[in-house]
Inverse folding.
């Protein structure tokens, strides 16, 4: 029987004709999409099985398996190491551009957060306002992951490559240094663009006033508050990146990113790169005559570059490092990739 299938095999033997499906004979894994591409429909499979049973009394055809929608955690850990290795080898020129873009993307999410939440708390209450704002803010990491960019907080997961001895400490620190610096440049660029766009004047200046109040609140945190909010924030951000590695399609990646990001924003945790936009934006706006009668002396005097760096950016950055490096990178590497002691079974089933 010549059926035109590249995987159909038949030959004449002393006992008569022998026919078989190569895919089934060698137990090759197949999925519905692959079978459809090669024209192996359910009806065609029945015909092939009938031909084999007629010739040799038995036969087998490939059984389609549903594609896996996401990887299990041990595979995610291996993907994380592979991504870390690729990121660590990225040259400085490309790294600078991609880092600038990531800072800009996170700032876009921050802009969406500010606009969306400027006037809805009186309608839906504080809790739902936080949740809606968090969903809006997740735009930033979605653009980073799906669009392709380099974000300092997500790149804290490079520690998995270091622990796996595929990335050197020098590569990790160099990557973090370049990415952090150009994330800051990208964030400031968006702050300048948004300032000159004049969009903050909309709704009677409520958007601009919201931006100033956000900046002042962040600059007024105690060092301890900022540190621990930074830890909690990047624990969730790196989990969002981790979940994006698990998914096989864009929708799955978006959902995996959106839920942890909405959670950290709703809870009020602190993200260093987002704050590189939020606080400078507030400082750009506080001197506008538009707001001179609306701002208290405390805001005018307390919203400064010194307060930003000392009260917020430095402790939040340290907290982000602890949250991402330790609670996600180190913990998951230990759970799934760390070589086990002789005679011990570890989580991924290796001895």
């Amino acid at each position: 029987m010549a059926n035109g299938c590249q995987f159909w095999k038949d030959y004449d033997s002393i006992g008569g004709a022998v026919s078989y499906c190569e895919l089934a004979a060698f137990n090759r894994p197949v999925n519905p999409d692959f079978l459809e591409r090669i024209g192996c429909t359910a009806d065609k499979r029945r015909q092939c099985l009938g031909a084999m049973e007629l010739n040799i009394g038995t036969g087998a055809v490939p059984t389609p398996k549903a594609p896996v929608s996401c990887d299990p955690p041990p595979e995610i850990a291996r993907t994380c190491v592979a991504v870390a290795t690729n990121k660590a080898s990225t040259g400085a020129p490309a790294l600078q551009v991609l880092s600038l873009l990531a800072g800009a993307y996170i700032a876009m999410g921050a802009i969406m957060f500010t606009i969306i939440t400027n006037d809805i708390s009186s309608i839906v209450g504080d809790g739902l306002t936080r949740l809606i704002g968090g969903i809006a803010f997740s735009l930033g990491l979605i653009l980073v992951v799906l669009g392709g960019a380099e974000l300092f907080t997500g790149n804290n997961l490079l520690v998995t490559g270091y622990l796996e001895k595929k990335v050197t400490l020098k590569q990790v620190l160099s990557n973090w240094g370049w990415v952090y610096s150009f994330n800051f440049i990208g964030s400031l660029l968006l702050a300048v663009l948004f300032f000159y766009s004049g969009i903050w004047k909309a709704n009677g200046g409520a958007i601009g006033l919201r931006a100033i109040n956000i900046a002042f609140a962040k600059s007024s945190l105690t060092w301890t508050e900022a540190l621990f909010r930074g830890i909690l924030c990047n624990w969730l951000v790196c989990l969002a990146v981790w979940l994006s590695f698990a998914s096989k399609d864009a929708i799955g990646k978006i959902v995996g990113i959106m839920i942890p990001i909405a959670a950290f924003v709703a809870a009020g945790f602190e993200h260093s790169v987002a704050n590189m936009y939020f606080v400078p934006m507030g400082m750009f706006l506080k001197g506008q005559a538009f707001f001179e009668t609306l701002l208290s002396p405390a805001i005018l005097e307390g919203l400064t570059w010194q307060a930003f760096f000392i009260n917020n950016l430095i402790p939040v950055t340290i907290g982000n490092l602890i949250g991402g490096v330790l609670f996600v990178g180190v913990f998951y590497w230990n759970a799934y990739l760390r070589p086990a002691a002789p005679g011990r079974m570890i989580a991924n089933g290796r001895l």
Residues 344-351 have pLDDT under 50 and may be disordered. DSSP finds 15 helices and two strands in the chain. Residues 138 and 258 are 5 Å apart (CA to CA).
